[in-house]
Amino acid sequence: MTDRFRNLDLESSIPDSIRDFQDFGSIQKQLQNEWIGIAEWLKLGDRYRDAIQTLVQLYLQNRFDLLNLKQSPEEETQAPEKTPSDISEKHRHNAKELAALCKRQGGAWIKAAQFLSTQGDWLPREYREELEELQDQAPGISWDQVVEVLEESLGSDWNSRFSDIDPNPVATASLAQVHRATLTDGRICAIKVQLPDAPMRIDADLKFFALAAKMFKDQLPGLDPEQLVRELSRSILLELDYAQEAENLTRFSKCYQSSEWTVPQLIPELLSPKTLGMSFLEGTPIRHFLEEVPSTAESVLKTLCSSFMRQIFISGLFHADPHPGNFFITPRGQIALLDFGAMGELSENETSAYREVLSTFLFKQQEGLIEKMKQAGFVVNQPERLIEMLFKAKDKNKSEGIADSDKTPFSKLETKLRILREAEVELPDSFVLMARVLISLGGLLNQHQVKLTPMEWAAMLMQQQPT
């Protein structure tokens, strides 16, 4: 084991407010030992030193806040009460630290930031706002590095395939970047080039995330960070498989025909393990479009939600990475769906069973709930406790003055997921993936203050397969 990990400098990154509380010494020693073990097991490189210190700082600060340390009466009277602005400022500072870390680390860390920024309201608003800046602002690579990948993938005469190619990327993503080019037959295309070191770094990054999830598990009540990391890992690994993405794009294109949305068309001759060619779609990222034309938010986002409900509950094949960086608005006003590396697929039985469960949640139908959940593949270990928790939550909202009508269907779904986990219900992986997609859409609606009523949501949910 190298001294650089054994002598990890935690002291310099620990806020003064934390150092004096009673349990700090034992917690610091425990953390030091845990992270030394991680460094030994993974044989981490120097780039993880920064990550370890930043995450330990965030962990200690959050743990300090959650402990709600007991003070003497004198201290309590002297200590000023924290205001909402104080809490927001602290969140903003920590969120900036986390976002900056993800940007410095690149690759899977950018993907993690994008993933976290779309997961409903279980993260404070300040974190979501800082992390969402990385949805379409990932670091890029040099043109020389792009050329190396093109030569390796398409041969030394790769440039004979193009009459023109722009060395400046039109988009940079977590694991790749995209260049606009013109083929010799005049077709304008987008060629996606995988970052040269992406596969080598991904495996260690994902293991690091899994270990960090264990560390933060007790700080996110009602959520399972380890399951979130598994979902993120699945999505990232799929994004590295361009042959699978090409198949996904082809299948999706055949399933969905609409005047309201569009997808790029595959260019097979540009497909390799590290390159993927598609027709070029002009457009503006949806986040920037809605900032420029906020009056269109309701129609655009409701159309987007309708598209995803159709994907899930009619064909069962759905885009499983719905962060805003993957949605563009074309000059014709269509919604362009991009990046088909991560897809979800449900059987006909699953779509029917999940529709029943979601309808029961939406309309608060206690009768038959447990049976429908079991038919959908849930393992309900404590049915009485689950029923009590689901309906007690509703009563608690009333007692706290929270009108049920104030909660969107997507927020209700997020609440139900938390309750299911607290009640130790075992959820099918495919249901969790589907729910996370819907919650991500709900987060986008909330950001732009667009409300989807329960009846609108139900109408989308109950769409039938065309005959």
Give an account of the 3D structure.
- The chain has 467 residues and is α+β, with helices and mostly antiparallel strands.
- It has 3 domains: 156 residues, no CATH class; 122 residues, Phosphorylase Kinase, domain 1, CATH 3.30.200.20; 186 residues, no CATH class.
- Helices cover 56% and strands 9% of the residues.
- It contains 20 helices and 11 strands.
- The strands form 3 sheets. Strands 1, 2, 3, 4 and 6 form a 5-stranded antiparallel sheet that branches. It has a 4-stranded mixed sheet with strand order 5-10-9-7. A two-stranded antiparallel sheet has the order 8-11.
- A hairpin with a 5-residue loop joins β9 and β10.
- α4 packs antiparallel against α6 and α10 runs antiparallel to α11.
- The termini are far apart.
Question: How would the blueprint of this fold be written?
Answer:
Layout: H1 3-6, H2 16-19, H3 24-42, H4 47-67, H5 73-78, H6 84-105, H7 108-117, H8 125-132, H9 143-154, E1 162-165, E2 171-172, E3 176-183, E4 188-194, H10 198-216, H11 225-239, H12 242-255, E5 261-262, E6 275-279, E7 284-285, H13 286-292, H14 297-315, E8 317-319, E9 327-329, E10 335-337, E11 343-345, H15 348-362, H16 369-375, H17 383-399, H18 409-422, H19 429-447, H20 454-461
Parallel strand pairs: 5-10
Antiparallel strand pairs: 1-3, 2-3, 3-4, 4-6, 7-9, 8-11, 9-10
Helix pairs in contact: 4-6, 6-7, 6-8, 7-8, 10-11, 14-15, 14-19, 15-16, 18-19
In short, what is this structure?
The protein is an alpha+beta fold and 467 residues long. Helix content is 56%, strand content 9%. The protein has 3 domains: 3-138 and 200-219, no CATH class; 139-199 and 220-280, 2-Layer Sandwich (Phosphorylase Kinase, domain 1), CATH 3.30.200; 282-467, no CATH class.
